[in-house]
Design a protein that fits this description.
mainly alpha
């Protein structure tokens, strides 16, 4: 596949466009990573809630275990501590849920903020580049055929600009029909130039 033009000016423009396209995609990805990091900071609240809930649950559970060992009254004293320990567990679960929500939101927003700009960049940069590569490759392959030059000259006659055709020959169709080598090659070169290929 032919990715770049054989002509220096056009090739330079294509390389520059490729570098700009890749740089823009890298910039968008970097921005998405920053957005993810900025949103992910919010999960500190969830971590704090989970840590507080786990700590409270353990403290109440330990206190219930210690007081529950007291003979005669231990069973009655333990119940409120077990209930408080359950409340600590609920707080820890709420903190974990909040962490999960923030992490998911950060990921979804970061991906969404990257995908749309990347698709726009690909539409305006990669589409024309792929179209050029297909056309240049096709033209190059035609030029390698045994009668490829004549075929390219015919295509130039069909698709070419009237002013450019007139510059090649006063009567380009007649010259092509009679197989004038110089005119046929000039017409083929016109067609190839449009595709970015040198004869």
């Amino acid at each position: 596949m032919k990715l770049y033009s054989d002509f220096a000016g056009r090739r330079t423009a294509q390389i520059f466009a490729d570098l700009v396209g890749l740089a823009l995609i890298a910039l968008v990805i970097w921005g998405a990573v920053l957005i993810h990091a900025a949103i992910a900071v919010l999960d500190e609240v969830g971590k704090s809630m989970k840590g507080a809930g786990d700590g409270f649950q353990k403290t109440m559970s330990d206190a219930g275990d210690t007081l529950g060992g007291i003979p005669l009254i231990g069973g009655g004293i333990r119940a409120p501590f077990d209930a408080a320990s359950g409340a600590g567990g609920l707080l820890a679960q709420a903190g974990q849920a909040q962490q999960n929500l923030v992490d998911t939101a950060a990921l979804v927003i970061a991906i969404a903020s990257a995908v749309v700009p990347i698709l726009v960049i690909l539409f305006f940069w990669l589409r024309p580049r792929l179209r050029f590569a297909r056309r240049a490759t096709r033209a190059y392959r035609i030029s390698q055929l045994a009668d490829g030059v004549q075929l390219l000259a015919l295509r130039a006659l069909v698709d070419g600009d009237a002013r450019e055709l007139h510059q090649v020959a006063e009567r380009p169709v007649e010259a092509w029909r009679h197989g004038e080598v110089g005119v046929v090659r000039a017409l083929a070169a016109l067609e190839l130039r449009e595709a970015g290929v040198r004869l």
